[in-house]
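Kindly inspect this today.
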Amino acid sequence: MEGCSWTAAGTLLLASLLLSSRTARSEEDRDSLWDAWGSWSECSRTCGGGASYSLRRCLSSKTCEGRNIRYRTCSNVDCPPEAGDFRAQQCSAHNDVKYQGQFYEWLPVSNDPDNPCSLKCQARGAALVVELAPKVLDGTRCYTESLDMCISGLCQIVGCDRQLGSAVKEDNCGVCNGDGSTCRLVRGQYKSQLSENKLDDTVVAIPYGSRHVRLVLKGPDHLYLETKTLQGVKGENNLSSTGSFIVDNSSIDFQKFPDKEILRISGPLTADFTVKIRYAGAADSSVQFIFYQPIIHRWRETDFFPCSASCGGGYQLTSAECFDLRSNRVVADQYCHYYPENIKPKPKLQECNLDPCPASDGYKQIMPYDLYHPLPRWESTPWTACSSSCGGGIQSRSVSCVEEDIQGHISPVEEWKCMYTLKMPVVQPCNIFDCPKWLAQEWSPCTVTCGQGLRYRVVLCIDHRGIHTGGCSSKTKPHIKEECIVPTPCYKPKEKLPVEAKLPWYKQAQELEEGAVVSEEPSLLIGFSRFIPEAWSSCSVTCGVGSQVRLVKCQVLLSFSQSVADLPIDECEGPKPVSQRACYSGPCSGEATEYTPEETDLLYGSFQEFDELYDWEYEGFTECSESCGGGVQEAVVTCLNKQTREIADETLCVMSRRPPQLLKACSLDPCPPKMGDWEMEHLQSYLWGRIADTRCLLFSPIIKRN
């Protein structure tokens, strides 16, 4: 039996072959249990996206693995506007069927988050909502703003390619699986200047095809719409109440509040919309808007021109033409140059008519428009730089008639020899997009609760694409702060220290005018940019003299997002806080501490830093905690450099020498009742008269607290 013996490897190989054969047979048996798929059923809809199914039978008495039905989308062309909503049609089919002994006109209830594929309808003019069927027809949209569809009572995902199970989405331009390059973001702010002499004004023009439109009006005035279709039909629509409306086949959502109006249009717009504002009150209104505007002029590559030769090998080229997507016609190239996003495609070159010419011809026929044939042609120099970087400029070039000989040498010839084709233009407009302009955000609240204060706002430089950039003229920049008056009277006690007074009190107080000075350095208010320093780093050394650093940013609190944004350093006013300072970590162990004269002066200030150079001083009082009825002011204590009079870090002053906390009473007069305008004028005249006559300061008692 020696020749029939099996090795261990041979046994494993045989077992593997038997196992794989058995597995293949089991898969074959499983597939063979099913009959072939049947033909596809009729589509559940004739337009708007429906569903079709295909069935197969199980040929075995056993249970077959897998599904016996499969689905696909169909009839994906959009329905005409007059076709109506598919879910609404299913509700109206029950109008002639009694419900609880009564006929109703049923309207669809859409966007049910719990069961979007049940047929829920509401009786017109009543609060009655009924589920008239457990399942809507296949192909019904799950939600009004989604392509997902109901199939057999379940909501199935549908991508923008109209395929079941697809996750492909539209970009902001409405292009399926697009990259956002076919539209541009437009955003801005409008502030009304309406009056009884100017009752309305234009806020913004939104062109045909725009998407994701949102406008927010704040103030007493009202929005209304003017439209113009591509056929030139004009219309006007007043927005008087909250609701959803159809304007020129575009669905509009409008919300009206006592002091605010919100307009939303998903789009795409089927007409040119002009949003206008109508005067309704003395106060000014502001409108913020944002939308995606389609790039309606785009370069389109042409087909290949006819071949340059009829036989024997020639060339043919493509070109590019500017195409108006709205009118479906070719327009002048300058319209495509308006959009910097548009890149003109380069011509393509290919060989053609490569078959040899017949011997009887004796020559190769040359077409008269051949760019590579020695016929004279127009040739141009490159365009000069644009005369303006924005807002519309001019660039020029030289155009001459040249001729190419058989050897490829080019020489100028008379222009009449090129007159068989049009001469290229020698000038053209350029950079016709809008120049960057300042965009002012909303004002912050006033910094005081009575009397005169300040308010602030963010001012950004926005280019034609809506991007924060540079290039705006500093001469035309709107101011970022202004005075504001709160129409609530402030009553000062007879004894009050000026806010900005410094010790010694009795000398400096007499030199200041009566009245509080409003600080122009508030904390990070909405719309106000300022320097914000971060915490100091650890000392760079563990002993001896080192340095500490910190990051100082120019930041602003944005009103629309309630978030902090970084700005360029030059956007902040005032001196920038220092970002580096010296530090001392004590003498190094085991070594005699020796410093250079510079280090000694820096660290010890010629041995007088702690004793003489830095010391605590009072820096006036905080503002009164109340404007009337009694409040408290606290003395502000700071560490000052005696030589430069600059505020220093508190660690440079000796903590044991810090002066005690001082408090003083303020605004002791009772709060007055609300006055009319006439009473207010007389009260202010009286108070200012007292101030002018007195011209001196009386001090309230200072409370010392240990």
Observations:
- Residues 183-294 form a domain with the Jelly Rolls fold (CATH 2.60.120.830).
- The helical segments are 8-32, 86-92, 334-337, 505-511, 597-604, 609-613, 677-694.
